[in-house]
Amino acid sequence: MAGQKAEDEGKEDRVHLRRSISLVPAVSFIVGTMVGSGIFIAPKGVHINTGSVGLSLLIWALCGLLSTLGALCYAELGTSFKKSGAHYTYLLETLGPLPAFLRLWSEFIFIRPAVTAYIALAFGHYVVEPFFTPCPAPLPLIKLTSFLGLTFLVAVNCWSVSLASRTQVFLLIIKLFALVLIIVPGIMALAKGRTENFQNFFNSEQLTLTKLPLAFYSGLYAYSGWFALNFVTEEVINPKRNIPLAIILSMVTVTTLYVLVNVAYYTMMTEDELLISDAVAVTFASKVLPRMASLVPLLVALSCLGAMNGGIFAVPRMLFVAAREGQWPALFSMIHIRRKTPMPAVLLLSPLMIIMLARGEIYQLINFASFSRWFFIAVVTLGLLVHRYRFPDHPRAFKVPLAVPVIFTVVCFFIVGLSLYSDPWNTGCSFAVTLTGIPVYYLTIKHSYVPTRWRKAFNYCSKQLQILLEVIQQEVQTY
């Protein structure tokens, strides 16, 4: 007994990522990552591409359903494979190293920088614009504010895992308050008979098949983040129970809230008012809650901050796991000796996020990132089907019906394929950048064609950075 206790205490003193995420922080982490700028920005993108109230609400419900199917597939994967890393780990385990590396490459090169940049831009808009209303806010000031918010969260995630987790719980409470502030007056008005904006509920005249994928992308963008907990599997307490439970609770909560929020928007705002607004929640508040109109932008900005925090917390774990597997430089599998955070992986993403932030525009960034993200999510669930077929006896603590991954995979591939026709420039660029990972993989991972002089210089720089950042390899296996 005493020997076991001493061994456990010795293990705690060694450098590794702790299992510190229980059920409540897990739910907060998923919901907090999902509920960000999307529900306050995406309604306009959905409506532009559907042209009617009824179809828009249907898209929101279908996006929630589709995301729930995907989340259930990831719940099975998260309990079948003990490693962190989400998409990367599941592709590595089911389809092999090349698909896994391409997912890692696209995440690092543009998906995460683009996703974080458009959330940061939304944060900047909501912080700055109230001070300049009714005049347009200066774009440099918006981008400076976005940069400061992004830098603050990178610092928090470098400093402490528990601080980042507590920040996420605190910001989630603010997010839910913001959503309730929109839902309650809208539903009350609807109950009193304010239904004039729901006349001509389904107007299919403006709908074209080519626009549907872009409507789904806007809606799915608002739901994105349901896979966030799978990035940190090794840090979840009792993952076989808490991962599926947290995912199910989160998806039911968010889907219900999103549909109710959109019903509230359409109850109090006409279609024209929604389409001319770049900040739907602020327009809603100025019309419905004039005394609290100045508070809503602040709540939305803090909501965006929470979504950014979730991404900055989660995605470096993918780089961390890839470096541990030998598909990324070893420096990024190291942990700070005192902070116990994967500091190099967190810091590596920052420069590309800032570049994307400086050059990006919100709706272009959504379409640009969404193609590759959803393509690889479809490939991951295809990998789940392949793995089930090849290894039917593999232990699975949580198993979804076969129809769930089949339906989800087919629908995702359909949306992704059609989007190449709907927005060929952004989606084509996304696809092309993803393919650049193939020569990188074969030149540096599969076969090492890097000149010896370059390799020595890189190893020297890595060693100096390791000393500067005070990081080492984790000393305890956590999977």
TrEMBL record:
Membrane-crossing ranges are 21-41, 53-75, 109-128, 140-162, 169-191, 214-233, 245-268, 295-320, 341-359, 365-386, 398-419, 425-445
Task: Specify the protein's topology with respect to the membrane.
Answer: Multi-pass membrane protein
Q: Name one GO cellular component term.
A: membrane
Pfam families for the chain = AA_permease_2 (PF13520)
**Where does it localize?**
Membrane
The principal location of this protein is membrane
| Keywords attached to this entry | Membrane, Transmembrane, Transmembrane helix
- Molecular function terms, GO-annotated: L-amino acid transmembrane transporter activity
Give the protein's recorded name: Amino acid permease/ SLC12A domain-containing protein
